[in-house]
Amino acid sequence: MKQFEVSTIYSNRISVDPLFLKEGIQYAINHDLDWIYICPLNSYSEYGFDSPKGLDTFRLNTEELRGCAAIKELQISEHVKIETDKIEDIYTIPNLRRFSFQDKSFKMDFSKMTQLEALHFKYNDNVKNIGALNNLEDLLVHSFSHPNCDRLSELNALKRLRLTGGAFTSLTGVASLKKLKRVDVTHGSKLIDASALSELPRLSQLHLEKCKALSDLSFLTNNECIRELFVDVLDSLEFAPTMRQLKSINFRDCKDGNMHPLLAAKSLEQINFHPNKKHYTHSIEEITKATGTRRGETVRPSCRLNARVCTGDLPDDLLL
User: Fold this and answer.
1) 58-59 and 35-38 as β-strands: parallel, antiparallel, unpaired?
2) What are phi and psi of 110, to 5 degrees?
3) How many CA atoms lie within 13 A of 135 on its CB side?
4) Average pLDDT over residues 90-109
5) What percent of the chain has pLDDT over 70?
6) 20-45: burial string, b at 16+ Cβ within 10 Å, e else
7) Average pLDDT, the chain
8) Computed from CA positions of residues 119, 124, 128, 131, in that sequence, does the dihedral angle turn out positive or negative?
9) Residues paired with 206 in a beta bridge
10) Main-chain phi, psi angles of 280, to 5 degrees
11) What CA–CA distance (Å, rounded) separates 270 from 296?
């Protein structure tokens, strides 16, 4: 059976099978690998399971994690469970800065992990004290189940926020996060109010995708800081000329078809929309020729954070 696997892309990462945590961590220590990803590395039959469902039954022996100073980044696959009384061992990792987990049964108390700088996880109601993470700069939350973002409002060091999936309808709460530079919201099917974004003085990049109830972006009118904007569907581009710092805009569908605001947006350096549609007043080729702007790259559709990946190199959405 495969015990561990060193990444061929990331020089400091090792994937470790949960049955061989001791061997994997020792190898990591000996070879200065500080990024540990714990996941099944073998087929279900090699573990003696009758079906792939058996892979979801792993219970991690966390003793090898206890006090391990070599670990700076830790990812735990959705397949791997940790008993509640064993969670304490994770809190004792002294140099842990980046943490990712997908199992919704994890009962994490983040007041015991205040040194974290990056956190990526599938939300569950068992987590506590997320507001205590006063050093957190990068947060990705999958399936955020609260109606708004008030629970995130105390993360004053946060520079990047990613929300993918979930039941939230409003971004109320993020307005207090004055250091935010980038916000990505994908698959927010119930999101109807993103006006809090207009109160972020350092927000330079905004990505809104698969948010089918949010196509009115008039809240961006007179925005003074956003430089890069992607949105898949929007009602109108009327706000664009009022955004004095906007350098790049990318979209897939403008409902009213009026491209004239792009001609009036003097700050723009890069424009892209795809495909050209019959009801548009101008094609992308006509817009770039008339404005002298560059045509940007077409943004590929995002996919939900894939929590089921358990071997090999991870997709970008799962990377710490």
Assistant:
1) unpaired
2) -75, -10
3) 12
4) 95
5) 94
6) bbeebbebbeeeebbbbbbbbbbeee
7) 93
8) positive
9) 183, 229
10) -75, 140
11) 6
